[in-house]
Amino acid sequence: MSRSPRDVVSQWVDAFNTGDADAVAELYADNAVNHQVNTDPVKGREAIRDMLETEFAGADMFCIVENLFEDSDWAILEWRDPKGLRGCGFFQVRDGLIVFQRGYWDRLTFLKQQGLSAEDALRKGLAG
Fold first, then answer.
1. Fewer CB near the last or first residue (10 Å), C or N of the chain?
2. Helix boundaries (H) for the chain
3. pTM above 0.85, yes or no
4. 1: CB partners within 8 A, 6+ apart
5. Domain range for 15
């Protein structure tokens, strides 16, 4: 039996919080799309893994679940981080894998909290 969207996103949060890009990427379908609305969509499991690897290397990130809902093949995650950044994500899950993800959060607040300028972010590959 396939994992529920809620279960997949719970596993995603656990893997994300370890900073392990490979473990997070394994939760995506081969042709998945990850669209953080403040950047261009990233297409494909390997490209998503590469994006996560760059982001984990360039910033201190941690996801604290505020709410996690499930509706049909969607999981909706409302989150915050220890520094106070808040956001939400929508994950479409089919056959136990994420096929589409869209995230909403404020990039400028994130950069300020990380002590990064826009130039620093570009140099580290954190700005889309």
1. N
2. 5-16, 21-25, 45-58, 107-114, 118-124
3. yes
4. none
5. 5-116
Q: Which tokens in the block code for residue 67? A: 């709410």
- Looking at the structure of the chain, the number of domains it has is 1
Tens digit of each residue's pLDDT (9 = 90 or more) over 9-59: 999 999 999 999 999 999 999 999 999 998 899 999 999 999 999 989 988
CATH at residue 66: 3.10.450.50
Contacts of 35 (CB under 8 A, 6+ apart): 41, 42, 100, 101, 102, 103
Residue with tokens 């201190």: 60
**Segment holding 75, helix H or strand E:** strand 74-80
Residue type, 23: A
Q: Beta strand 28-36 with 97-105: parallel, antiparallel or unpaired?
A: parallel
